[in-house]
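Sample entry follows:

:::
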Amino acid sequence: MSMTSFLQRFASKKPNKSSLSIVIFSDGIYLSKITEESVIEPAIVLKLEDKNWQTQLGIALDNEGCNNLKASVTLGSHLYHSYQIDKPAIPKNEWSVALPFLLKDLITGRIADIISDGVELPHSTKIQAYVITKKLLDEIQSELTQRNIELLQILPEDQVWAVNSHSSPFMLLHRNSNSVTVHRECIDKHSGVCLRAF
C-alpha cells in the first residue's frame, strides 16, 4: 500500500465501517470488535506496564483472534503532536501533502519522517494540524498486516473527543484502579469509537 493512500486516511472519515476499534493510550491498549449491526462488544484492555505498545497490541490482537477485520485506530495524545496554524490557501484535499512543509519550523524532525493532516476550526481562519511519524504508522501497519487487518483510519484522541462532544453515539470507558467498565450506548458511525467524559 502506498504512502499516499495512508496520507489520505489520516484523520479522514471513510465510508467503510470498522469492525475493530483500537485505542492506544499511554496506560494500555483498548480493543473492541464491532458487529455488522453496529453493536460494540465489551472493550478488552491490556495494560502496558513495562511492555511497549507494539508488543501489547500484537498480544491483544492474537488473544482476541483478531484477523480479517477493518480497523480504526485512535491514538492517545502521547503519540502525536498538534499545532494550530493559519488555514492554508490551498484546496483541503492537498493539506496532507502541504502541511509537513508548512509545519517545518515547528517540528523537530525531518519533513520526510512525518505524516500530517488537519481539520478546520469552527468560526476561525485557523486549522488544527496533527502530526505523526512514519515510523509510528509503519509499526501500527505492521501489527495489523500480520493479522490481515485493514487499516481504515487513524484518529488523534482529541479529534475524536471534539467531533463527538455534541453527538449522541458514544462508548463510555470508565476506569478505576482495578478495572475498566464499558457502558455501551452505540458507536460513532465513522470511527467505531468515541470516548466521552462524565
Observations:
- The two ends are 39 Å apart (CA to CA).
- The chain is about 25% helix and 30% strand.
